[in-house]
Amino acid sequence: MTxxxxxxxxxxxxxxxxxxxxxxxVQELAALLRASGVPKGREVSIHPSFxxxxxxxxxxxxxxxxxxxxxxxxxxxxxxxxxxxVSAEMLAKLNVSYVIAGHSERRTYFGETDLxxxxxxxxxxxxxxxxxxxxxxxxxERSAGEAFSRVTxxxxxxxxxxxxxVVGGVVVAxxxxxxxxxxxxxxxxxxxxxxxxxxxxxxxxxxxGAAASIRLQYGGSVTPETAGALLDAKNVDGxxxxxxxxxxxxxxxxxxxxx
Length: 259
Ligand code: PEP
Known about the structure:
Elements: E1 7-12, H1 19-36, E2 42-47, H2 50-62, E3 68-71, H3 88-93, E4 98-101, H4 104-110, H5 114-126, E5 130-135, H6 139-143, H7 147-159, H8 164-168, E6 171-174, H9 188-206, H10 208-213, E7 215-219, H11 224-232, E8 238-241, H12 248-255
Parallel strand pairs: 1-2, 1-8, 2-3, 3-4, 4-5, 5-6, 6-7, 7-8
C-alpha cells in the first residue's frame, strides 16, 4: 500500500465467542500486542458480537489495548419497533469506531440489498463512525467475466451521491464470496486488480481526493502467511479477517505481517 494511508486490519469474530470467551480473547490480544506492538502506520479493529461489545469495550479502554472497537452490523433507524435490532446510535454510545455494513453473509442469509446497506451507511456516518462496506462477487459471476462490473456497481450503489470528503473517510472491503471461510485466498494480483478498479470507480463518482484517501481492504481466508504480500499490494490498504481473528496469535501474526 502507498500514499500514506493508514492500513486497517480488522478482525470479524462473526457469531463466535460468548462474552466470557470474548474477554479472554481480548486479554490474549492485549498481552501479545503489548509485547510486540502494532506496526507504525497500521490500525487494528476488532468486531465482537453485540452481546460482547460492552465487555470488550471496558477491557480495551481499561487496559489501553491498541485496537479500535468495531461492530458487525446495525439497523438504519435510531430507535423504534424493530424487534431484535441494534441501532448505530446504540453502537456509538459504546465508543464503537467501525461498523461492518453489507457483509456477504448478511447479503446471502438475511437478504440485504445495496439499498439497505446504503441506509445503514447513512446511519453509521450520521453517528460519527466509519463504515466498512463489504462488496464482492460470486464464483459464477467471476467465471462469467462479471466480477469487475458487479463489484464496482455495488460500490457505486452504496457510496455515490455523497461528498468526496465523506467517501474518502469510508473503508471498502473487497471480499470475493468464493474466498470467505473456504481456505481459498484470492491471489495478490486478483486483490490488487479489484482494489484498483474500486479506486477508479470511486474517483469517477466522488473525485480524485476521495479515490486517494478511501481505504480498501481485502478479505477472504487471510492467514499470517498470506497477509504480508496482500498488504504490500499498491491498492490494498488493509485486511478484513474472519476465522484467523479468533486465534490471538494468528491475528497478531496478520497485524504484524510484512511482505
Ligand atoms: C470475513 O468474515 O469477512 C472473512 C473474510 O472471513 P474468513 O477470513 O474466515 O474467510
